[in-house]
Design goal:
The chain is an alpha+beta fold and 257 residues long. 26% of the residues lie in helices and 26% in strands. α1 packs across α2 and α3 packs antiparallel against α4. It binds 2-amino-4-trifluoromethylsulfanyl-butyric acid and cobalt (II) ion.
């Protein structure tokens, strides 16, 4: 079932989104050589709880192996859903994907950024920049009457024009009172096909783009998804409302992020 959100609910989602972006901004200041992903996660959890919100990823998933942390922290060839760890110390040249989900007054915000640690290679910098561009291309078609296939096509065609691989095993999704709501939002597709976008739909669009081959492996920890070929991957995500006036990004204000 696809929920259509009232303008009041969209304002509540935007409040959650503002808290998420403020938290992400704070975390960006911590990302430097020598810090562990566990320390970054601890700061995120403290920030979220002290603002009266709840970290939605913590405890998420199958009760036999729930996600154990606030953030997903994924380094280099890890695509998404990496688990923060005291043993994962950032070093110059790394790219770190931080995926942040919180719930505030019952409404969820979901966002991710790919962040450089110190100086990174030109090819990693371009990968991250172009992954963000994939999101921007998708945004252009996020208007009532367009279709999910238009979003997928926008992301896929931009990424593949650079020879990158588009991850297919994971998708974007609806966001509302739950983290993962209908519909699924693939990062590949055929323009003009698929579900029609409607005013009031709120979706997380999250291109996951590999420098090399698109294929993935799932790690034994039950969470971390990596590139099969070991090449780096980038991720960029915002929660977006479809409105009559066009797309409204709920997890970004201005050009700060
Ligand atoms: N943005 C991620 C997603 O949509 C958040 C995952 S939280 C986790 O999949 F708990 F599932 F890891
Ligand atoms: Co998401």
């Amino acid at each position: 079932m696809i929920a259509l959100r009232s303008s009041h609910e969209i304002e509540l989602l935007a409040e959650s989104g503002r808290l998420a972006e403020d938290c992400m901004q704070m975390l960006m200041g911590l990302v430097e050589e020598g810090i562990s992903t566990w320390e970054i996660d601890r700061e995120a959890e403290h920030y979220i709880r002290s603002h009266g919100a709840v970290p939605s990823c913590k405890g998420y998933g199958d009760p036999s192996n729930p996600f154990p942390a606030t953030l997903c922290t994924s380094l280099n060839d890890e695509i998404v859903h990496g688990i923060p760890s005291k043993k994962r110390i950032l070093k110059a040249g790394d790219i770190l994907k931080i995926d942040l989900v919180l719930s505030y007054h019952g409404y969820v915000a979901d966002m991710a950024r790919t962040l450089p640690v110190g100086d990174i290679s030109e090819e990693k910098r371009l990968l991250a920049e172009r992954t963000r561009e994939c999101f921007q291309k998708a945004l252009e078609v996020m208007v009532p009457g367009k279709r999910l296939g238009d979003i997928g096509y926008a992301v896929q065609s931009h990424a593949e024009s650079f020879g990158y691989g588009v991850v297919r095993e994971l998708t974007g999704h609806g966001v509302g009172t739950d983290l993962h709501e209908d519909p699924e939002v693939p990062n590949y597709g055929i323009a003009g096909r698929g579900l029609r976008l409607r005013e009031g739909m709120v979706i997380a669009v999250e291109p996951m783009i590999n420098m090399g081959d698109r294929r993935v492996t799932f790690s034994p920890d039950g969470w971390t998804v990596k590139t099969r070929d070991g090449a780096p991957s980038a991720h960029y995500e915002n929660t977006v409302a479809i409105t009559a006036d066009g797309p409204r990004i709920l997890t970004r204000s201005g050009d700060r992020l």
